[in-house]
Automatic annotation (TrEMBL):
It comes from the Bacteria. PANTHER family: LIPASE 5, PTHR34853. The lineage of its organism: Bacteria, Bacillati, Actinomycetota, Actinomycetes, Mycobacteriales. This is Lipase family protein. Pfam families: LIP.
Amino acid sequence: MTRPFLRFLGAKRNRVTDVLGALGGLALGLLLVATATAEPLYPRPDPDPFYAAPPDLAAHRPGDVLDVRELPPLLLFPGATVRLVEFRSSDSHGAPIAATTTIVTPLGNRPDAPLLSYQHFINSLGTECAVSRKLYSGDLNLMTTAPMLNVFLQQGWSIALPDHLGPQFALGAARLGGQITLDGIRAAKRLPELALHASPVVMAGYSGGGIATSWAAALQPTYAPELALAGAAIGGVPMNLVTMAEAVRDGQHPAFGLVMAVAMGLEREYPDQVALTSYLNPRGLAVRDALANSCTNELLAIGANTGVGDYVANTSVFDSPEARAVVEQNSLELYPGVPQIPMFEWHSPTDPLIPVDAIVNTDNRWCGAGVPLQTLRVSVPEHLSAALIGAPEVLPWLIGRVRGEPAPSNC
């Protein structure tokens, strides 16, 4: 586990630092709003009809399998079977949506072997940026993640890789990511050919992937109460978007293209509250159009070293109570529910990219509510180093959960 995971993180150090810095400005994008007529710019529909929602979508339960496609073998996962699964989920307002997850099963898959739902970060706005697409495009992010995932596959585990931004690629909609993650697990357990019906299930994710993972853990008691989970490991999670907005609302940012993309993603998910488009100046509209179907690298390149003042016609856009409500609804520190499963959480106490106080407050609230929580504070000065130092603790912790061992806690 340790060496491949360290290679995975080390290979991405420079670019991911920028990406995570943009996530540190995530809520800033939310404040580029008003309650005037919103005009979200949605992504181009995927040309593959597999991804389209069926006409009878509303007749299905969340987590019901809608379609399955076996994909070609991948050199990334030697000997594994790869399936793309479409399933019914729900958007942030409870309306039915069709979502997808890629399920990788090992050679000689054993019935009811463990399942890991791994929430990869998907900092993108376009349908071509889906995990199921990038697996076959030579994407560096997924190629460098593969060694870590292969450690689990070699132990006989299956891996679920959900497209947790949803069909509209609503970047920044954190609750949505949690719901899609849970419904993807439901779908995996309901699909007979996967033989996962009675499998122990754990979840994991760092930073952007940790957002979807932590929300899935917190929402499970009410959103998917029948779903048995053995535990979840989360690292470097932005727990409070309001705090992050207050920290980055002024000046320019090296990864502001991603910040702008988050505002666009939230406008897609909350068009009545996040009316970004109506406050953009001509340059802002042009950048919006350029970003609308872009993946991470393009987002970063287009908006590098710019800021709010470059794109809005009126800075009064920061005064929207409707937008603040959206920020609060997607801030885990402010969500009153707590996980009812063991949790592993790690971060650097001096991480400059996320509000560490929000993590500590959330940990303390979970501990006070009786959550079996093991925390790891690593003494390193920045975000990626924290991932490097904490990662070797994740594998044995996850293995312990699927074995049913008593969950450690250092509350």
